[in-house]
Amino acid sequence: MLKQLLAASSDADYVSKPALAARLGMPLALVEEGFEALVRMGYLAEDGAGCVDLPCGRCPYASMCQREPVQMWKITEKGKGLLAAVEKAG
Q1: CATH class of the domain whose range is 2-89
Q2: Taking a C-beta distance cutoff of 8 angstroms, is the pair 86, 9 a contact?
Q3: Contacts for 69 with CB less than 8 Å, ≥ 6 apart
């Protein structure tokens, strides 16, 4: 499940947890727990402060976020390595 979350997160520039849950057929709570686990394991990391430092008018995601705070994440080098290994084994 964690590999699925990481792979699905890498497929798009913008991913919402509710949309990801629907796409993968998982409860939202499970997706949220999965993100927490991926962070703890070092596969995902917070990428900046999100909406705190950028006004909505300058935000590239403003049209998608419904004016709710956006949490930005990035896949770490460790995460990229895992995705590469999964693709190679695939």
Answers
A1: mainly alpha
A2: no
A3: 50, 51, 52
